[in-house]
Design a protein that fits this description.
The complex is a heterodimer of chains A (279) and B (244). Helices cover 10% and strands 35% of the residues of chain A. Chain A is mostly beta strands. In chain A, the strands form 3 sheets. In chain A, strands 1, 2, 3, 4, 5, 6, 7, 8 and 9 form a 9-stranded antiparallel sheet that branches. The mean pLDDT of chain A is 96. Helices cover 24% and strands 30% of the residues of chain B. The mean pLDDT of chain B is 94. Classes of the chains: A mainly beta (279), B alpha+beta (244).
Amino acid sequence: MLKVLKPGLYLTIQDLGRFGFRDIGVPIAGAMDVESVKRANLLLENDENDAVLEITMTGPTLQFDADTYISLSGAHIAATLNNEPIDNYTVVKVEKGDILSYGRLEQGFRGYLAIKGGFQSEKLLNSRSQFYPVTKEARVKDGEEIPYKETLAYEPRISEVKIEEHFEKNTLKVYKGPEFSLLSDAQLSEIFAKSYTVSKENNRMAYQLSELIAGHSHSMLTSGTLPGTIQLTPAGRLIILMKDGQTTGGYPRILQLSEESISILAQKKYGDELNFKLV
Amino acid sequence: MKSYPISIKPFGERAVLVEWPNKVSESILADILDFMDAFKELKIPNWEMSVAYNSLTMVYNQDHIDFEDTKEMIQACHEKQAQSKTERVQHLWTLPVCYDLEFGMDIEEAAKILNLSVKELIKQHTSHQYIVYGIGFLPGFMYLGGLPSTLEIPRRAEPRLKVQKGSVGLASKQTGIYPQDSPGGWNIIGNCPVDLFDPSKKDPCFVKVGDKIQFESISKAEYELHKIEGEVGIYEPEKVVLNA
């Protein structure tokens, strides 16, 4: 078991998501920054869908009760194992009783902790990703114990990798959304000429942007939405749906992020700048 | 029955949006469901489909897709669907609702705005069958069509931060049930004790798109009973098989 001594700001268990239930309104959920999770699991020779911990801005304090191997990825948050600093994208041996704790957030917004064999929390509707009300809790609570398998010895084929991080990228690649053609020339030039900042309203469901563009009065029948769908509200606000985002919506879907750009956006926080590029 | 024309649009790297004529109609919905049945017959794994009114979102969970190839495959399937019609089982569900003021905190005000007595409002709300045009917004939330125009009332000016699970609401052309606690701006007229989303069940949402819903007024005592039956897992909502 991994004992959660302190959960930090927002700690969740995530795999790559819950597929096959959008027809009953269940969002995909899953890790926000899929790229970082895949890399950490790859390094541990895990299945890419093995469950990890998603750490948001401030890290948890965690104690291991069995030997294993871990790898950190995603945001750079100063992490220590028994007060010894450890780096992202390194296979780290952990022994029974060891304590992993986190300090300052240096770069990015969401960090990941992958463990050999993946976290073994209950699978619900084919996934371990936390999403209320599929899972009883939306996030990991103080004092919770998260199961994992003991690994006494393991020879990693690669013990560390250098990664070209995506934190510094701030251009999001977008495709035309289903209602792209509703945009006026003025709205189009605003969207692609200006840069935008992430508003305080940003979480696993959606990122809202602070700057408004010209509004509209189009009404449409409710229709499907996906992670990465950019909706335009009548007031001119851009809302980018993320992994816990609802499966249907009634605002025009003007643009759709590339999947790589969803991972880039997942590492942005309040006040960060970004811009859009049509592909 | 004839098929309607469809349009197919790209929707990111692994999805397409298929749209039918832009209106809310039972026969369009039937056409969409026929298409889905025909597509499922192709038995291509990893495609996920969800309906909302006149559109179908199709997502390929396996990989990125080539839009032109996908479009061609969908068009071919749509052209073929008329000949290979499958029998579809659809249900009419009777869902109990307690319209007691304890749950239906907006029912008196709603009745006043609609120029009806509370009794008349309940009678009208329970005497229609509503068609499930989609499930979304929240897990197990049904988009219901067929509300009589005499029950159309605008959303509340200020949404509530918390609407209780099971709350039955009215908002413009829609009526529906909140399957979980949620913020919401609908006028709340009652509460349904049935779980519309239960992830512990093999089929977490018993209602399917294309089914119909009729509400039945129950007393507070019956409400409490259904709640307990639900908790111990012996409550089964009443259903009748409709002809597809």
